[in-house]
Design goal:
five-stranded mixed β-sheet; 8 helices; 36% helix; 2 domains; Neutral metalloproteinase; Neutral Protease, domain 2; globular; binds asparagine; Elastase, domain 1; 332 residues; alpha+beta; binds zinc ion
Length: 332
C-alpha cells in the first residue's frame, strides 16, 4: 500500500518543511506521491546509478545538519516539490514535460563536488556536497535552476552554446528566482540572486546577480556582437538583467533586505511590470516562441509578440518589454 504522506523535512537551507512522501508497510520513502512520484536518492558519494532511495521507519527527514545524510535529501526533495508546485499552480504545467510524470533527484554525488546538474538522459537532477562536503548544492534556487533545464529541454530547447545557450541558462535563473519568490520560505526569501545560500565563493557572495550581472566579475549586463563566444553562464546575464528590469524597473531598490541597483545600457529608465507578468511573458515565450536557434534578437521578437497577445500591442506591458530589451542593448 502506498499513500500520500506529509513528512517532515529538517532542511539545511529552508528550515523545517512539509515533504511529500509515501508509506509502504511500516516504512516511509522520499517518494512524492502527489507530484508524479518524484523520488530522492542517496548516491552516498557514488557517481553513477541511483544509489539508494531515502527510506526509514519514521517520516522525518534530516536534522538540518549536512553531516546527517538525510538532510541534503530533504533540501533536494523540498526544492523539487516547490518547483513542481510553481509550474503547476502558476503556469498550469504538470511536471517537467507537462505529462504529470515526476523526475528524480540524486544527492551526495561524488566527493567535495561543487556543482549540480540536470540530465535529460536520466530525466533527473544531481547534487554534489560542495566544498568540504558541507555545503550541498541543494538550495531552492539551485534545484529550480536544474529542473528548469528539463522544462527548457521539453519546450524551446535552446541549443546550449552561443546566444541560444545564454538564453537557456537565463531561463533556469529566471524561474529559479520565480520559484524562490513563489515559495516564500521564511528562511530563504525570494531574491534576484542565484545560489546565495550555498556559499560557493567561500565569502558569502552569491553565484550570480540578476539586477547587475557583472557584479560577479564575469557575467554580461548587456548584449554586444560576439557575446555568443562567452560561456553560457555569463552570456545569460543579458536575459537575467532583462527579466530583472522588466519585473522591478531600473535604479536602486530594496526587497526583503536585499539591495539592488540595476543600470540600463541606454541610460533610459525602465518601469517594471512586476515579477508575475514578467514570468508569464517569459514562460509563454519559452513554450510558444523559442526554438533551438533562438538568439537575443529573436528572444526580443518572441517576448514582444507574447506581450502583444497577452496585453495588447499598445499596453504598458508591451512597452516595458521593448524598453527592458533596449536597456540591455537588444534592439530591432
Ligand atoms: N550547474 C550547471 C548548470 O546547470 C551545470 C552546467 O554547467 N551545465 O548550468
Ligand atoms: Zn544551468
Amino acid at each position: 500500500w502506498q499513500g500520500i504522506e506529509n513528512g517532515t523535512g529538517n532542511t539545511q537551507y529552508s528550515g523545517t518543511v512539509t515533504l511529500g512522501s509515501s508509506q509502504s508497510g511500516s516504512n516511509y520513502t522520499l517518494t512524492d506521491a502527489g507530484r508524479g512520484n518524484h523520488k530522492t536518492y542517496n548516491l552516498n558519494r557514488g557517481t553513477s546509478g541511483t544509489g539508494t532511495l531515502f527510506s526509514g521507519p519514521d517520516d522525518v527527514w534530516g536534522n538540518g545538519q549536512p553531516s546527517n545524510l538525510e538532510t541534503a535529501g530533504a533540501d533536494a526533495a523540498y526544492g523539487a516539490q516547490l518547483t513542481w508546485d510553481y509550474y503547476k499552480n502558476v503556469h498550469g504545467r504538470s511536471g517537467i514535460r507537462g505529462d504529470g510524470v515526476g523526475a528524480y533527484s540524486r544527492v551526495h554525488y561524488g566527493n567535495n563536488y561543487v556543482n549540480a546538474f540536470w540530465s535529460d538522459a536520466c530525466f533527473c537532477m544531481t547534487y554534489g556536497d560542495g566544498s568540504g562536503n558541507s555545503k550541498p548544492l541543494t538550495s531552492i534556487d539551485v534545484a529550480a535552476h536544474e529542473m528548469t533545464h528539463g522544462v527548457t529541454a521539453a519546450t524551446g530547447n535552446m541549443t546550449y552554446s552561443g546566444e541560444s545557450g545564454g538564453l537557456n541558462e537565463a531561463t533556469s535563473d529566471i524561474f529559479a528566482a520565480a520559484v524562490e519568490f513563489n515559495a516564500n520560505n521564511p528562511q530563504d526569501k525570494g531574491d534576484y540572486l542565484v545560489g546565495e545560500k550555498i556559499d560557493i565563493n567561500g565569502d558569502g557572495t552569491p553565484l550570480r546577480y540578476m539586477d547587475k550581472p557583472s557584479k560577479d566579475g564575469s557575467s554580461k549586463d548587456s548584449w554586444y556582437s560576439g557575446i555568443g563566444n562567452v560561456d553560457v553562464h555569463y552570456s545569460s546575464g543579458v536575459a537575467n538583467h532583462f527579466y530583472y528590469l522588466l519585473s522591478e524597473g531600473s535604479g536602486a531598490k530594496e526587497i526583503d533586505g536585499v539591495q539592488y541597483d540595476s543600470p540600463t545600457s541606454d541610460g533610459l529608465p525602465v518601469t517594471g511590470i512586476g515579477r508575475d507578468k514578467a514570468s508569464l511573458i517569459w514562460f509563454k515565450a519559452l513554450t510558444t516562441k523559442f526554438t533551438t536557434t533562438t538568439n537575443y534578437a529573436a528572444a526580443r521578437t518572441g517576448t514582444l509578440a507574447v506581450a502583444g497577445e497577452l496585453y495588447g500591442a499598445t499596453s504598458a506591458e508591451y512597452k516595458a518589454v521593448a524598453h527592458a530589451w533596449a536597456a540591455v542593448n537588444v534592439g530591432s
